[in-house]
Amino acid sequence: MVLYGSMRVINxxxxxxxxxxxxxxxxxxxxxxxxxxxxxxxxxxxxxxxMINKSALQVLYGLKDAGFEAYLVGGCVRDxxxxxxxxxxxxxxxxxxxxxxxxxxxxxLIGRRFKLVHVRFGRDIIEVAxxxxxxxxxxxxxxxxxxxxxxxxxxxxxxxxxRRDFTINALYYSISDFSIxxxxxxxxxxxxxxxxxxGNVETRYREDPVRILRxxxxxxxxxxxxxxxxxxxxxxLANLLTDIPAARLFDExxxxxxxxxxxxxxxxxxxxxxxxxxxxQTGELLHHEYNGFPRVLLANALANTDSRIAEGKPVTPAFLxxxxxxxxxxxxxxxxxxxxxxxxxxxxxxxxxIESQVERVAIPRRFTVVTKDIWVMQVRLGQRRGKRAFRxxxxxxxxxxxxFLLLRSESGEQELTELAAWWTRFQEETIEEQQNMxxxxxxxxxxxxxxRRRHRKKPEAKSE
Length: 464
Ligand code: ATP
Ligand code: MG
What we know:
The chain has 464 residues and is of the alpha+beta class. The protein folds into two domains: 13-244, Beta Polymerase, domain 2; 277-440, cca-adding enzyme, domain 2 (Orthogonal Bundle), CATH 1.10.3090.10.
């Protein structure tokens, strides 16, 4: 960790940042206001301009030159202080979205819930947000559960800091003197390695329950610990997540599982009783696990995904959801197979489980179609006689389905070990050898040749 000592420096900023304290009463409890910010000058922190994305610097200077205040804020400041490479660079300013839009030619206004400006430089997009005031309970910005529904009231830098989620996400890097401005105690928390919600923890989780997922994601990603109250209320309030729109949860779930620390994040989600709020069908089965199933399959799938991400290989959400929902599908499939053949039984089970899951998490159809393919291919991989193995091999989803078969065989379904090894070899052999492999399969179970359907002869056309 590359954190340099900081101290309370009373400098020229102070006068400018002293603002009306009463305006902060909307944030959690009213005692959070501490007055003057902690200002860490350039000489006492490690962020240099060479670490900052060029486009972000251009935005900061563009705003400054146009007479506005401009700061880097959020994850990028936090990550730079911790010595990590930031994922993206966000800018906060006192310019209104419309003013930002006029400063930068290649910019556009976006967002419904939050109005933001995207400034484009080649392939980079820098998000610029105007300082926002915290929501107030007294007006219609908050619904009956305490959830924020609108948040477009512009405010001061100080107000903007207090309405953010965690103290370590509320640090501002100033482009005017390269200092870091901290109203909420984020610098001390970073040094102590702790993630703490700003203000009254229960109020802040209720305002936006996605903060529960964000807290867990940051533990996984940054390896920091949760402050006691921020931690204690997670299992207590996890159920609030069921009110979050399914489309937003889908985005959050991809961030949770496809950011490189999926396994740790999954363990934290189950540890804090949050997993079941996201995947109720799988969560239910985790309580009755049998031979470590489905925990082992999920853990193995996420460990594979993490190492693929570390190696820079692509990962698909379809495979992730295939693993996350496999156990409920497998059990439902067994149930349907009592009445109908394997493939239609699996298709039926897949349809039911996915239909129920998308009510909670809006997985787009382009992914669920592939997820179902991966599952149905599990039956086809067992049917190898005649031309079938060759047909399966040329299926566009063969690779994903084969990987899934390997995953199952390594995660408790030992009866699949031989089949998985057969497919591993089959892919490496010459055509002749592949044919020999197919010929030497004894007809059994699924592999039994289907009885040939007798084609009724068409009645011959009568000749005139
Ligand atoms: P990363 O980008 O590494 O995932 P981040 O903290 O930058 O982490 P973003 O989603 O990019 O996360 O959000 C940028 C900043 O916006 C956050 O650091 C935080 O200050 C603020 N923010 C994001 N989501 C919320 C929220 N739900 N409630 C309050 N503030 C939020
Ligand atoms: Mg970010």
